[in-house]
Amino acid sequence: MGRGYNLLIVLVTFLVLVAAVSAQGNRGSSRGGGGRRPRVGYYGNRCRNVETIVASVVRAHVQSNPANAPGILRMHFHDCFVHGCDGSILLAGNTSERTAGPNRSLRGFEAIEEAKARLEVACPRTVSCADILTLAAREAVVLTGGQRWRVPLGRLDGRISQASDVILPGPFDPVDKQKRDFAAKTLNTLDLVTLVGGHTIGTAGCGLVRGRFFNFNGTGRPDPSIDPRFVPLVQARCPQTGDASARVDLDAGSVGRFDTSFLRNVRSRRVVLQSDLVLWRDPETRAIIERLLGLRRPSLRFGTEFGKSMVKMSLIDVKTGSDGEIRRVCSAIN
Q1: pTM above 0.70, yes or no
Q2: Which of 102, 190, 291, 294 is the most exposed place for a label (fewest CB within 10 A)?
Q3: From the candidates 76, 78, 83, 199, which is the catalytic residue?
């Protein structure tokens, strides 16, 4: 009996130790990840309504201003390509990322701030701004007709945001540079083409694109690689001496709908950005476009692939453990 009693004591002690370690791990997670990678269902019972709350706020802001959908999607991309997906794009300040040239036209900051305020009431100091932005980007796609995907959560918010660090793929980049830029972020060529397909919603500033339609490379003529029938349409929208801040659709004919229309326009040479058009001239990216359009086998489903690539992008250099924090407000560090 003495031996049995001793074994029972050992077993109870072991179970108590396991429970203590588990509890410590959960406490670490509640403070922001404990060094773990993001995962689906991360918040669990600590914030059951996180996705519902974000979806509700984003829906209201997109209904109020449809431009918020592409704005939030673009914001997520710009965030992830600078210091990783850590919400650094959301920080305000005279020299923060938000003040960099490519970010000055971003929209949707108010939606993220409102979602954060509501989550601070429902689940105080639990959900990071980086996670809110990641969820909001998914909702922006869904609200414009795109396919839903499961979003891994558990990122922390970064503490550094400098305009001088903002180096993003540009609208005039050749294909090889685009491939290198994406590869540097662990994204392959399929990810590149698929994520550029996000241009199916959104607009570009006339000042950014009209050179190609009036004086390409100083020739005094439009870019000859553009469909000639498309040129006068853009010229009318973006006159040579007109307002540079006026906007032109990235996806002519389907700008508010998340679909494959943009990829069809790339194939037809009816897109406004040079970096988009060159994807049709490169054999590798052209083949991917054909597969996404069902013109080449094995075919690919654009909605499915877009979700996969968004998940990959959302895991770039995420902050966990002591690398970051959970901000009280998204525009300022704690």
Answers
A1: yes
A2: 294
A3: 78
